[in-house]
Amino acid sequence: MSTGSEAPSAEPLTAAQVRMFKAFGFLHCRGAFTGAEMADIIEDVEVGRAQSLHHGDGRELIAGSERLTALLLEDDRSGGAVAQLMKAMGESRWLLSGSNTLWGAAKDQGAPKGLEDTHVPEHGWHSDNPGVFECWPRIKVMMYLRDTTKQGALRLIPGSHRAEYQEQLKPLMGWHGTADAPKTYTPEYAEYTFGVKGVEIPSVSVEATVGDIVFFHHSMYHAVFNHAPDRRLLAYWFVGYPDRDARLASLWRNDVTFTAGWRRNGKAWRGKPSPLLKHSNPMVRALAEPPEVWERWRAQAEAAHRTLPFPDAEISIYQPAAEHRERTGMKRWRSVEGR
Length: 339
What we know:
Number of domains: 1
Oligomer: single chain
Strand content: 15-25%
Structural class: alpha+beta
CATH architecture: Sandwich
Largest sheet: 8 strands, antiparallel
Order of helices and strands: HEHEEHHEEEEEHHEEEEHHHH
Shape: globular
Distance between the termini: 45 Å
């Protein structure tokens, strides 16, 4: 994916592209996949949608086919680029996040069931993994199946993946739901925080077309305004290997399900071996761990979460935050009253 301004590289990304990702937290590769390749991918996605698992917020999870696995995990333009970026961030191994090769397929066809009164055409500013304790290498990859040049373009705040940015931007998260109401990203928190509308926050608009691929750090603040009526994309995630207590505790706080992993609050896919473990390509096999490893990690993760000193302001938007507040007596910081 050379830009033409540098000598050809044996790596899928140029040195300039790697510097771009490390400095700003994202990389937009235009036309990475051809029209014929995208036709095959879209065909597989449509087949997968017939057996999809609805996420409850308008997204679907679809099973990865052999062709999708080859294109998204083995191909240099996707899996190879992720490997190069992970190595540039100091990682020697990483995992595919998402159970048993499931890919998130956004559809955004109006309000999801049960959220009719809360759904808005904007997806306000948020980080999927907010807080300075979450800024370890995690990459979200988005492949566009429909153009988003007029509606539904992804917006990113460059550099917001860096730990020093997290404290300043965390009020954008607001309070995403209570025990009695669903979680939602509400754009008005930009006005509470910085006095401007969400769409006016300094950012980059990623106007993608079919075949484009976007890589961005999972701690990065992002949003979507002026949603397309039927936005379509594939989203999949990679994460640095959880080989230390701080990372394991992060998994516990975020209730993360990785390939053949576990969920604290749900039983879906728990303990099922990932099909990636039997893949012929060792690079793909290395993206998964067997259930017994995850069972060991689960115990270590809970213990790490309960012993490491995490300030309440760095707890994720998920349920462990409430557990932490109950133990420490700290108040939740995401309420906007008094701002």
